[in-house]
Each structure stands twice: as structure tokens, then as C-alpha cells.
Amino acid sequence: MSPVIRPRRLRTTPAMRRLVAETTLAPRQLVLPMFVADGIDAPRPISSMPGVVQHTMDSLRAAAAQAVAAGVGGLMLFGVPRAEDKDATGSGADADDGVLNRALRILSDDLGDATVLMADTCLDEFTDHGHCGVVDGRGRVDNDVTLERYISMSLAQARAGAHLLGPSGMMDGQVAAIRAALDAEGFADTGILAYAAKYASAFYGPFREAVGSSLEGDRRTYQQDAANRIEALREVRLDLEEGADMVMVKPAMSYLDIVRDVAEMSDVPVAAYQISGEYSMITAAAERGWIDRDAAILESLTSIRRAGASIILTYWAAEVAERLS
Ligand code: PBG
Fold it and tell me: NCBIfam families of this UniProt entry (predicted)?
């Protein structure tokens, strides 16, 4: 037995493998999600996400500057209000002095256009019931009432200096509503990174702790069913028609087929969000010595890129950016 054709030839040395690598991973493609909490005077560890913290304003500024110096492509901010500041409609979300809007203003002052500053445009961090929208008398999330709240929240974030808004609540018509409001108020240059295909996922578990969410029940009346693929394409098509500047698939690793499908149909950049549970799984297995942490991180990010995402939101963005450069 002596094969003539030997694919292994292209794997013989590290230099050869580097030469023929089809997929690249660069710091600029990585976006760091960050949590900033109100009413704390030291960064607070998130126990289910070892290595990730809820920041104070000061620690946020330092970590953001460090991530930008490492070359990340952008920062995605989440606000964590004090429990007593949460209410049924998420008033803290559009208050100019709400924790997220204050943080955006500070980072915008610090960093200017040196990075792309993004904000989570969703109510769940700010509502006392933990849903992404306003709940009606029958306990259902009211789509159109929620859109009014998203509009107000978007304008507050645009005023605070966000370059890109990330509507993540999966309400129908959210991109069109936000786009129209931004344009009417003079924010034509503020972009929308649409969470276009966002699935109801068990892997969001650690995020609920990260933002102190009080959600009981689930988000299955607005987030997508893991069983569905065609539905994701429809959601993406609608968001593109409504004016999304980028579209996102979330979570990433269990939905690489969707990332691939979306990359093939989208004519705007495609992002994928490697979410909290994905971070925690790799971290936990590595802590037990069951997998090689650094290799697993790089492999997971390379796979998401290979599936077709040009932008990846990952809690390892700063660390990996440093390692790559
Ligand atoms: C909603 C939002 C969530 C995440 C990002 N934006 C939570 C959810 O939809 O349940 C999850 C991110 C992660 O798990 O890392 N504001």
C-alpha cells in the first residue's frame, strides 16, 4: 500500500500548516462584552463565570482601555442596576443617569473613536420581572409597548455616545422602530447590530447571574426554538430589510450551522456571540484539568470564524487579542 495522494504532506510542519490555514483569527474581529454595576465599590466576581466581573466605573475604564490597547474590535456594554432601581418598565434603561448610559458616556469620553462602543439595547437588566420587554395584564410580553421602550432606550444610548446599538430582545419590528427613531433624532450615523437569530438557550444560565436577573420562567415566547433553522433565516431577512447594519447569531457553538447559513445570505457583516455558558463550560472543564484551556479557546473561536462569522463577541476577547498580537 503506497498512496500517491497524501494530504498529510500539508501538515508536516508548523510552518506548512500556517501556510495553508484557511481561517484566520485577528484581534480586530473580537468584541469584549463587559458588565458595569451600580452601587458597588469594588469589582464583583461572577461565580459562574470565573475570570469575569461586574465592573465599577473605575475598573470598567481600566479594563476597557486595556482591551482597546490589546487591539479588540469593540466593546459591548451591559448595565447592572441596583435591585431597588429596577421596575416593571425598566426605567433605568433610558434614564440618562442610568448605569449603562453613564458608563457609555464615560467610555465615549475616554476612548472617542478609538474603538467601536456598543450597547445592549434590551430591558431585561432593568426590569424587576427580568423579561426583555413590558409585561401586560395577562403576563405576556407586549411587543408593541416594548418597542416604545426600546426607542427611548436607543435614543438615550445614542446620546451617550454608543456607535452601535445591539437590540437583543427579539421583539418583532425592533430594528425598524429603532432605525426610524435614530434617523428622526439626528443619529443617522448610529448603527444597529441586530441580534437577528437569537435562540432560547440553556447556555445563557451564567449571564443571569452576571446581570443579577430575577427572571422566573423563560423567554420562549420571543426567543427562537433550537429546533428551527428556516425561522432564523426569516428573522435575518426581516432585520436586513428593516435596516440592520450587522446581524448576529447567538449562541455560537451550538448554532454553527446557522452562522454558516446566515453568512451565505447576508450582505452585511455577520457576528456570532460566544455566550456565558460557552465560556463557563470551557473554563470549568479546564479548571478540572480535563481540557487544555488555551487550545480549547482558540479552537472554539476558529470554528466560529470558519462557520462564517466575521465578528465574534467573546468574554476572552482581550486575552486572546493579547495572545494573538
Ligand atoms: C439580553 C441578553 C442576554 C444575553 C445577552 N443579551 C440574555 C438572554 O437573552 O437571556 C446573554 C449573553 C450571555 O449569555 O453571555 N439582554
Answer: PRK09283.1
3-state secondary structure of 159: helix
- In 3D space, the residue among 172, 167, 251 whose CA is nearest the CA of residue 207 turns out to be 251
Count of CB atoms within 10 A of residue 208's CB?
A: 15
Q: pLDDT (tens digit, 9 = 90+) per residue, 39-88?
A: 999 999 999 999 999 999 999 999 999 999 999 999 999 999 999 999 99
- Residue 219 CB less than 6 A away from ligand 1: yes
* Helix, strand, or coil (residue 76): strand
Residue 160 CA, ligand 1 centroid: distance in Å = 22
Q: Which of 153, 207, 250, 316 to mutate to test the pocket of ligand 1 (most atoms within 8 A of CB)?
A: 207
Is 219 annotated as belonging to a binding site?
A: yes
* Contact of 229 with 261, CB cutoff 8 Å: yes
- Identity of the residue numbered 80: V
What is the Å distance from ligand 1's center to 188 Cα?
A: 26
Distance CA 168, CA 285 (A): 29
pLDDT > 90: what percent of the chain?
Answer: 96
Structure confidence at residue 302 as a pLDDT band (50, 70, 90): very high
Single out the catalytic residue among 129, 163, 198, 305: 198
Is the whole-model pTM more than 0.95? yes
* 22 in Cβ contact with 306 (< 8 Å): yes
Distance CA 325, CA 322 (A): 5
Q: Can you name the CATH fold of 25-324?
A: TIM Barrel (3.20.20)
250 catalytically annotated = yes
| 35 CA to centre of own chain | 11
CA distance 24 to 301: 10
Relative to beta strand 246-250, strand 191-198 is parallel
**Does the active-site annotation cover 198?**
yes
Distance 97 CA to ligand 1 centre (A): 23
